[in-house]
Amino acid sequence: MNRRSFAQSVGSAVALSAFARSSAREQTSSTATPGRMMAIAAHPGDGFFTMGAALGQQIELRGSGALVCLSMGEKGAPRDIPAKQYGELQRTATQKAAHMLGAEVIFLSYPDAEIPFNEESALRVCDAIREHKPDIVLTHWSGSWHKDHQNCHLVVRDAVFYAGLETVARSRPAHSVSKIFYAENWEDASSFVPDTYIDIEAVYEKWLQACDLYPMWRGQTGFFRYNDYYSSLSVMRGCLSGFRHAVALMSDPGQRMQRSHSL
Ligand SMILES: [Zn+2]
Q1: How far is the CA of 46 from the centre of ligand 1 (A)?
Q2: What is the DSSP letter of 263?
Q3: Residue 42 alpha carbon to ligand 1 centre in Å
Q4: Element (H, E) at 138
């Protein structure tokens, strides 16, 4: 199947090298300015395995990126490492991985498996959004079996809403996020329908090296083969989008409306 027939088959899917500050759908121009991206993840592994390549790509093209980790994922510790110690190892790995990609990292340090969905957590994420002023927020899709991932999705939705409301008085002024995207995650796969493909070739090797800082990526904490899954996924998504390696994201349904005088 050639590019033309692929484009016909996938309909409205878009393939991008980075997200523009103005509109993702306008990012076919090399002159568009990459926007600021904030990835917000329940656990550091989600942040790098599922969002890190898109974040790194955004930074690579002179945008900027920050990662918010709601917890350290410490309860995913292998049997021979106490959870508290594992959490510190996760923190160190995350700082190194973020440095490799050129991203800022913000730890909110909620207990793993107990990330709350409430006003306090939504306002803390709201404050992070107001401080870092992202144009684009990337987070978990709601169709997850994992309660932390579900709660992260809900917290971020409320946080984006609060961040843009001038009547929500916080220490920093209101900031409106232009776009929300959801990352492809094996644990959040229910009803996940990607529509946006990002070329990650420029950061592919760096992203793999960043992920490799985590024991989970190397299969040392459980049964799931994160390395094989996400590296293969990038090849498969690249095949579908005409890139060598790609990540596929799902746009928020609320931002898909397009206005036009003609088709
Ligand atoms: Zn997770």
Answers
A1: 5
A2: -
A3: 5
A4: strand 136-140
157 vs 117: CA distance, rounded Å:
11
Identify the CA nearest to 248 among candidates 177, 190, 167, 192.
192
Cβ 53 vs Cβ 200: under 8 Å: yes
Structural contact between residues 199 and 248, judged by C-beta atoms closer than 8 angstroms: no
- pLDDT tens digits, one per residue of 223-251: 999 999 999 999 999 999 999 999 999 99
Largest CA distance in the chain: 63
Predicted structure pTM score? 0.90
Measure the CA–CA gap between 20 and 125, rounded to whole angstroms: 23
**Could you tell me the pLDDT band of residue 62, with boundaries at 50, 70 and 90?**
confident
Distance 244 CA to ligand 1 centre (A): 27
CA distance 195 to 206: 25
